[in-house]
Amino acid sequence: MENQLSFNEKDEKIDFSKIIQPYLSRWLWFAISVVVAFIFAYAYLRYAPSIYRATTTVMLKDDKKGGVVNELSALSDLDILKDIKDNIENQIEVLKSRTLSEKVVQKLNLHISYISEGKVKTFDVYNNTPAFISIETLVRSSVKLKVVGEENEFTLFEDEQPLGTFRYGEIIQNHIGLFSIHKSAENTKFPYSIGIDIEDPIRVASSYRSSLNIKLVGKNTSVLELSVSHQNKKKAEDYLNTLVEIYNTETITDQRFISQNTSDFLTKRLEVLTKELHEVEKHAEIFKKENRVTNIQTDAQFNLENANLFDRKYVEATTQIELIENTIKGFIDVKSTGKTFPLLDVFTSNQVLSAAIEEHNKKTIHRNQIALNAGEGNIMLKQIEEEIEALKITIKENLLLMKSNLLIQKNEISKKQASLSGRVRTIPTLEKELREITRQQSVKESLFLYLLEKREEAEISMAALAPKAKVIDRALGGATPISPRPMIILLGAIVLGCIIPFLVIYIMELFNIKVRSKSDVEERLSVPFVGQIPHTDDTQQIVTLDTLSPLAEGFQMVCTNMDFVLNDTPQGQSKTILVTSSFPEEGKTFVSVNLAATFAVSGKKTLLIGMDIRNPKIGEQLNLRSVGLTNYLASDIDLSSVIVKIPNFREFYVLPTKVVPPNPAELLTSSKITKMFEQLKQEFDYIIVDTAPVNVVADTLLIAKYADACVYVIRENFSDKRMLESVQRLYDDKRLPNMAVVLNDVSLGNMTPYYGYNYGYGYGAKNQKNKSLFKKILHKFRW
């Protein structure tokens, strides 16, 4: 039989039309979803605030990154400039610091926004406000006010509640704080309404800081690009310009602080040395006057030259010792807070001492920065002060160690000088005393000149201080907003509008356990497939000779295919067809009635028997009130008396069931059933038997032996795919004769193209045109 039909042949190739069919059949879902997404996108674009990005470019003066020539390069050999050479990464962190951002917000009053309400959006008018607020104190960090102003006075509101009417410039003191409102321009149009939103400066600074982006323009440059995003383009520009300005101011302040401390220290030491030098010179003057000495000749030039050599070494050692002692007295032993220590040349020979002095200066600057914002009880302040004191101890220990070494050297020189003095006993004692005075004078003069030179260097460095960041391009906001972007939003709306219904349909199909199309049946069954019955809103409809509809075409196709199934039945012999299903409500009675009607319309004498005696529906379907099959089986009445001819049909007869018997199985196995079929097959060309569902009761299997074929009805979007396994078992076990499958209640979108319904052909198109627009749309959403 399967060789005679090709309905169950399966294409092993991927059927792309089947994959996309669920989506194509619900094209209206996609259309509506895209339209809705477009509406939301349009509303978002209309009401969402525009965001602009402002950008500025600066060049940091840092030798490591190839910056511009340092204005202080001529003084690069001075130790006082060592601590101000920071790398680019550190400066980026300074620019992004919270403290710097808060200073910018406070300077520009960015925590105060002036809001103008438009027809659709609200706007931050910034510098174009008709009135502005001057704040003395605020009780709360966040306040929302509204000013409705006239020419000479204004009314103040908070949360739509009036706070009173005031004159411009009048001091207002209430639960909000102490403040005043001022007119900003003479040409303000009256009346006006402006909102004033005051926010926490720290929170506003954090917001700007989070949107600030800093990046290096190139790997081998020190050029930075700073950008920030904000609803108000002018605010973003001012923020960047002021950020760079305050950064430069603070870096210059830090450098000046170091130089000023150094200069102050050197000035104090010069004052002390001036007095000491004056005393030595006065002593020399008195000595020469008392001894009447103007010029002393030496006897032994060679000894004097050697003496001079050791004298120079002695002077050098004495100078270094005195410098160390002066440093300990003037810096280490004196309790000083916040002062840096100059790294002099005499200390550079000791690497440990040099490193300790550099670390001390860095921590002192750090301590001073913390002290600006913290109280004296601050834990971090105490901790860093303890670290500074520890460094002082380290410095002092190294200075004392250096002094000890110099004293040893000095003693050795003195011994050699004493030895030399023994060899020059001829030199007058007067010359020796004068040399001692001259030596002291030389030491003081050398130290004085050295410190004087360093003080001048410190003064020059303060005068030559330049901004750390050189502005290449001042901040400029973009002409177009960076957000929202209409094209991206609209494109996203299209994509989202397609994705949502796609996912919904995909999930529906993924969890689908219902038979949705002919392919679902053919993939799971090898039973011959004889036709599809299209969906109809009229479940009582019966095919007649004049019926022009997809329904009539569907049943005509089933009848034609059933003739192929029954091809083995001898010519001229009656053909009996059982109609059954797995469960009730799958439309077997509807199929039975219309299948019989279709055979009758084609001129075949057809009998429809209602043998679903447990749940008879044929009488209700055809409005029959006469006695029926159960009456015949349970009594001795004549068979012809219970057969009813259907009006308007020439060859359509029905043997209905009216009364539900208490013993249906016994009736169906009685001998009268066999006699009945033998008699009926002599009188009718086709006998259509409406039987009970096979998965509910066994009635159908009891009478299957009387049939030549069986039409198994499966209903689209109702029958469970899992139940198709039982259908296949019935077919494999040959429990029902010549089984064939009919798919009932098929939506027109799922009909196989050869039916012609999707092409607007014939009566199918005519019937579709008669549907209302609402029914057509509703049909698109049919699951």
TrEMBL record:
Q: List all membrane-crossing ranges.
A: 27-45, 487-508
What are the record keywords, sorted?
ATP-binding, Cell inner membrane, Cell membrane, Coiled coil, Kinase, Membrane, Nucleotide-binding, Transferase, Transmembrane, Transmembrane helix, Tyrosine-protein kinase
**What is this enzyme's EC?**
2.7.10.2
Which residues are in the Polysaccharide chain length determinant N-terminal domain? 12-108
Where does the UniProt annotation locate this protein? Cell inner membrane
Q: Which residues form a coiled coil?
A: 263-290
This protein's major location comes to: membrane
Pfam families from the UniProt entry: AAA_31, Wzz
Membrane topology, as annotated, equals:
Multi-pass membrane protein
Q: Name one GO molecular function term.
A: ATP binding
Q: Which residues form the AAA domain?
A: 587-704
Q: Which InterPro entries match?
A: AAA_dom (IPR025669), Bact_polysacc_biosynth/exp (IPR050445), LPS_length_determ_N (IPR003856), P-loop_NTPase (IPR027417), Wzc-like_C (IPR005702)
Its Gene Ontology cellular component terms are: plasma membrane
The record lists the catalysed reaction(s) as:
L-tyrosyl-[protein] + ATP = O-phospho-L-tyrosyl-[protein] + ADP + H(+)
The family assignment reads:
Belongs to the etk/wzc family. Belongs to the CpsD/CapB family.
NCBIfam families linked to this entry: eps_fam
Q: Write down what this protein is called.
A: non-specific protein-tyrosine kinase
